[in-house]
Amino acid sequence: MAEFEPQLTKRFGVKDGHKLKGFLETGGYASLKNLFAKKPPEVIEEVKASGLKGRGGAGFPAGMKWSFVPQNTGKPIYLAVNADEGEPGTFTDRYMMFHDPHLLLEGIICACYAINSHTAYIYVRGEFFEQIERLNAAIEEAKKANYLGKNIQGSGFDLEIYVHRGAGAYICGEETGLLESLEGKPGKPRIKPPFPAVVGLFGCPTIINNVKTLCSVPWIIANGAAAYMAIGTKESTGTHVFGLSGHVNQTGFWEMPFGLPMMDFINNYGKGVKGGKLKAVIPGGSSCPVLTAEECQDLTLSYESMRDHKTMFGTGCAIIMNEHVDMVKVLKNLTHFYSHESCGQCTPCREGTAWEDRIMKKILDGEATTKELELMLEIADNMEGKTICVLSAALAMPVRSFLKKFRGDFEKYCKAASVAVPEAVS
Amino acid sequence: MPVTFKPEVVKEFEGIASRYPQRRAALLPALWLAQREFGFVSLDAMKAVADLVGCSPAQVLETANFYTMYQKEKPGKYHLQVCQTIACLLNGSEEIKKTIQDKLGVKNGETTKDGQFSYQAVECLASCHTGPCMRVNDEYHEGLTPESTAKLIDELKKK
Description:
heterodimer, A: four-stranded parallel beta sheet, 18 helices, 42% helix, B: elongated
C-alpha cells in the first residue's frame, strides 16, 4: 500500500507518548502556532476545504458543522466531545484517548478557537476508567504548561476542558441524548430543530464532535487542507483508524488512508477469514446494513463506496462473519441490543425494537412461520423516519438487510407457512 | 437508613459543580461519588444526592434508573460484567457466561451468597477486537476462554 505519514496513531507505542513531555517531543501542540496566526473563520474554511468528515458515524462535514454556530447570540458557545464510543463493533476511540490524550486536547483547542468556545466537555463512556484518568492527567499537565487556561501561549485565547463521565447508556452517543446527559438528566434525545449548533448545551450554541474527528484537525492545521485532500479518495479525505473484529485471524485496528479494498483489509491486515469462508460483513458498526461476501468483492473503505453498496461507512470498524455463522442468532443479538438501549420516549422505537426482539425469539424457538418474517419487515418500515432520533432506524436497517440477504437462514427456522384456519361456522 | 456525605466529599463535589453553569449538570458526577462512597446507589443515597445537588429525589431516581452503571443494589466485591454483544458473541461469549454461571451458581443480575461476586451480562464494552471480554469492577479482561475465566475467578477467590 501507498506510503503515508500516520497522523492519529503515531504516538501509539511511543514511550510516554501520553504525557506532555513525550507529546511535545513528537511534534505535539505544533499546530497551535498556525492556528493562532489565523482568524477563526479562516480555520473553519481550512477544515471545510480539507473535506474532513465526522468520524462518529454520520460522516457530516466537520468544517460545515462548525460554520453553523451563530456568533451573535451573546450566549457562551460550547464544544461537547463525543467519547461515548458504544456502537457495537467499534473500539478505536478508546485507544486514541489512552495512547494520545494530548492529541485530543490539541484538536479541541483548534475546534474551540474556530467556533469561539471557551468551555469544552469531553463526554467519556463510564466504562473507560483508564481513559478518564489519562485525560484528566493530560488536562492538568496542559494547564500547567499554559496549553489550556487563560491566554493560551500568549494568543489571548482562553479555554477550559472538563471530563464528564457517562454511566452506561448507548443512546448518550446520540448527540442530543449526550447533551441531556451532560445536563444531568436521562439521555433522551431532543427534537430537532433547533439543532444543537444553535440551541444546544444549557440552551447555548453547541458543537458535538467525535474523538477522531477532533484528533484529525491538528494535522490539517499544521499541514494545510491541500495536503490533507491529497490523502485518501476524492470524497473520503485523510486517514482513519480502521478496525476489524469477529472472524478474522488477526483482529485489531490500523491507521491508513481511505480507499483500501475491503477484501485486502480482511486478507492482508486481518490475515484472512477465521474458521471458514467469508459469509457476511457489517462494515461500520452494528447499525449499518449487512453485506454479503459477494458485495464485499468491489467494496473499498470509503464513504462513497459504502454508499454505492447501500450501506454506511459508520465508524469504519468492520465485523467479519464466516460461513458457519447463524444469521438468525446474530440478528437476535442486535434486536436484543437495540430494544435494551431504546430510551423509550418514541412509541415506534420502544414498541418496535421490543416487538422485533420478541419475534426473533419466536423464530429461534421454532414457533414462527414465514409470515412473521413479513411482519418483521412491516414493523421495520414503521420504525424508520418516525422517531426523534435514529436508534429506531439503526435496528430497522439491519432487520431489512439480514432478511433480504440471508432469508434462507431464517426460513430454516420457520414452520411451513400457515395451514388455512377454518372459517368460523356461524 | 439515611446516609450523609463526608465534608471532604461535599468539598470535592463543589469543585466538580463549579465546572458547570447549572448545578443539575453535576448530577451524574454526584451519583458517581455516591457509588464510590457508599458502594452502591441506594434510595437513601439518592436522597443525599438530591440534597447535595439541589434537585428533587424523584429527579435523582429518574436519572439514576436510566443509567446501567449505577448499582441500585449492593454488588459483590468483584462485579463481573460480561459483554454479550455481537463481536463477543461471535467469538464465544456464551461459553464465558455459562462458565461464570456454573462456577459461581449465579444467574444474570445475582450476587453470590458470600457477597464476593456479582454477575451481570452487559452490552458492548467497546473491546470488540479482543472479545470475549468482561470488566471486573473497573478493569478490562480480554481474549477470555472458559479456562482463563475459571482461573481468574479462582485467583479472585484467593485474594
